[in-house]
Structures are given as C-alpha cells and as structure tokens.
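Listing S7. Sequence submitted for prediction.
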Amino acid sequence: AKPDAAAIERARDEVKKLDDLYKTAVVGITETYVEKQADVPAATVAKALFEAMHKKGYHHARLLDATGKPKNKKNVASTDFEKKVVAAMQGGKTYIEEVAEVDGKPVFRAGTIVPAVMKQCVTCHGIKEGQLLGVIVYELPIK
C-alpha cells in the first residue's frame, strides 16, 4: 500500500531538518577549524555523522561529488536515484525527491544541493564560490 500524504510530509520535513542540521554543522566546523587544504575537511565529520545515524537505523545519507572530480572515488553516485539527483543539481535544481520501496517497505528519498559557500571550499576544491560541489542524498523510512 502506498504511504499516506501525511506520512510523506513528515518524512519531507525530517529531510529538511536533517539537511539544515548537517549543513550548519559543516559550515560551522569549516569556519572554526579549516584554514588550509591539509586540514581535515568538515565533510569527513559529516560522513561520520551519516554513518552513526545509519547504524542506529534512523536514516541513510550520502555526500556525493557533483563536480566530476571527486576527492574520493567512494563519493561518486552509484544508484539510479543518486545519478538522477546529481544530474538534476548539475542542471540547476536545488532539491529532488521520490517515494520508493526497499525490502517491501516505503522509503522517502531526497537529494539536496551542496554549493561552495565559503573561501575554504574554494581553496580546497578549486572552484568558484557559489558553484556546485556536490549533493547530499537522504533515504528515510516512511512511518
């Protein structure tokens, strides 16, 4: 059975909250601790948070490259949805979502834009401020 509209809206709100939380943390960590390319990138901390939340069964999140020059080959889109999100963001979208099914259970998937928002992004990634760096892809159970 298809999940009801209220359950989908709750999942959508959860993604918005998570996206704000993760991006605020990455920017705050970067502003505070990242000055040069040799410093540990805030994305490393974000990935650790993503993994901790996934292990606890809350949700799954992945940070993916959208520049075509990934710092880590593990950061390349691999699923059909991830590839669709990267392509959509490269085409100018800032958000994309879908309702799907995994192991017979409904899930909410969403992808959000990750632009270069500060000078440290430019320093490490070699792109201009405001340009697309990557995307975050979320998958949450719909309850």
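Caption to Listing S7: primary sequence and predicted structure tokens for the chain studied. The mean pLDDT is 89. Residues 5-33 form the longest helix (29 residues).
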